[in-house]
Amino acid sequence: MHAAEKVRDAGYTHFDVHTPFPVHGMDKAMGLKDSRLGWIVATMAILGFSAAVGLITWANVISYPFVVGGKPPLSIPAYAPVCFELTVLFSAFGAVFGMLGLNKLPQHNHPIFESDRFRAVTDDKFFVSVECADPKYDESGTRALLESTKPNHIEIVEDNEP
Fold first, then answer.
1. Radius of gyration of the chain (CA)
2. CA-CA distance, 141 to 7, in Å (whole number)?
């Protein structure tokens, strides 16, 4: 956690922390903002509800204005099932595709997976990885920063992909 705080305080933004179990407070230590996924899901829910109301209104009032069983064309109880279902459907699509987009998935491979030491992350090791795409990245400066956190090992992982 202290290493993540040091990297964050140094101004790095493209870094990640890998742990074998969830560490409470790590989001704050990394300086991560709240996820935008909730807003995406809420927007999609409103869009789904609006699409349902629009579809039912178009079908019952504009395109096929038949009076069935004495009910008026704008019968609110008839809207409930379709509005609920489309709200849930659009919300689910928003959650899945929003999560994939925000996490930049699918990313089939990451260079850090090539490190033999990284295999221990699911067992008992903790890792801080700094991307070279970070604007503050400088190999010697980043190495010095990471060495100041007193790590057991520092490794530079090269991306061999073209």
1. 25
2. 11
**pLDDT confidence band for 87 (50 / 70 / 90):** very high
Q: Encoding tokens for residue 131?
A: 């991307």
Mean pLDDT of 113-141: 91
Domain ranges of the chain: 37-102
Q: Could you tell me if 122 and 81 are in contact, meaning their C-beta atoms sit under 8 angstroms apart?
A: no
- Would you say the C-alpha torsion 143, 146, 148, 152 has a positive or negative sign? negative
CA angle 109–111–117, rounded 5-degree value: 115
**What kind and span of H or E run contains 17?**
strand 15-18
For residue 77, count CB atoms less than 10 angstroms from its CB and return exposed for 0-12, middle for 13-18, buried for 19 or more: exposed
